[in-house]
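Proteins fold reproducibly. Next comes a concrete instance:

***
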Amino acid sequence: MQPLDLKNEISAFPIFAKLDESQLDRLAAHAEVLRFPKKSLFFSEDNSAQGLHVLLSGQVKLFKLAEDGKEQTIFVFGPGEPFCLCSSFSDGKLPANLGALEDSRVLFIRPPEFERLVREDPTILLTMMRVMSRRLKEAMDMIDSLSLKQVPSRLMAYFESRHRNGRVSLDLSHRELAKIIGITPEALSRTLRKMADNGDIRMDGAEIILPQAE
């Protein structure tokens, strides 16, 4: 990809919104674009990943694996979102695994260029702190849901944290959503039907409607 095309692609991302033209030009000139096919594992708890990573296109999940092989999805990232943030400020060791749910392209900025950027424009660090704070809160909410709440309450908490005007766009497969909630896909389907029968939610194609939040 040409630097100009990359510059145009990333200029609308919130994390780079405050950069001026010259900073965007240099960022695009020094950045690398990494490509990962669907279902590939591109970072793990055993690998280091220093530097800044921002998803350009596709979908990426952060997940943990138990000793018995059970998978717990923690976050799912979409285009424009930075990830591997904790490793950017530490020794690079990751607390979980990262895999591609779709064919994905990732913007990668090596540590020296990343440090130069944040020295010139600290708003990048502020944006990253906001993202990390939001994800920490979501992680705490997930721990609370998985340990203390029944399955319908877990699902409702997930929907309520992501709705816009009472509507939640399910951009995940039922299999991935089930991993986030900590149940099987079959149990997820049964719970969704029961919640719909009870009037707690309505299903409209790939969207979940929350009557009480509309």
About this structure: The CA atoms of residues 121 and 148 lie 42 Å apart.
